[in-house]
Design brief:
With 154 residues, the protein is of the alpha+beta class. The protein contains three helices and four strands.
């Protein structure tokens, strides 16, 4: 074997080793926001809105979150985490009239939130009685007594 053949053979062997070691392993598919199943539907499809009652307690609850760092993004994240803490502690579904306090000393941040805990209950199909509260067209509401779609006379 001459020198050029040995160099070419060496390059091919090294290249083969390098490229064969860069294999990828299959990964679990990620959920991408906005993806979903769909189907072409012919004819009329009506979605009846769902409504619920909101039971708001008069006793305020509080949540707190502490972090170290700087920046507006960190404060926003701390506010969200303080809200999560208040909801988890109280078992509430939503916090009504949340009031935040942010304390910064150096790079230490303490965020506190307080508000009234709200609990969703009595989920049901929206009826004609709910129309004014929901600001929706009555043609998509169910008739409470017969549980059928209400057709507005025109």
């Amino acid at each position: 074997m001459n020198k050029a053949t040995k160099i070419l053979l060496g390059v091919v062997v090294v290249g083969g080793i390098v490229f064969s070691s860069c294999g990828s392993t299959p990964k679990a598919p990620l959920m991408v926001e906005g993806q979903g199943k769909w189907r072409n539907v012919t004819g009329l499809v009506t979605h009846i809105p769902v409504t619920a009652d909101l039971d708001v307690k008069s006793q305020k609850v509080q949540g707190e979150y502490r972090a170290e760092g700087e920046g507006d993004g960190l404060i926003k994240m701390c506010k969200a985490q303080a809200l999560v803490n208040a909801l988890e502690t109280s078992g509430a579904d939503v916090l009504i009239n949340p009031i935040y306090s942010v304390e910064q000393k150096g790079n230490k941040i303490v965020v506190r939130v307080s508000g009234y805990p709200g609990f969703y209950k009595n989920f049901r199909a929206a009826t004609i009685k709910d129309k004014d509260l929901l600001e929706i067209k009555p043609s998509v509401l169910s008739n409470e007594e017969s549980n059928v779609i209400y057709k507005e006379n025109k």
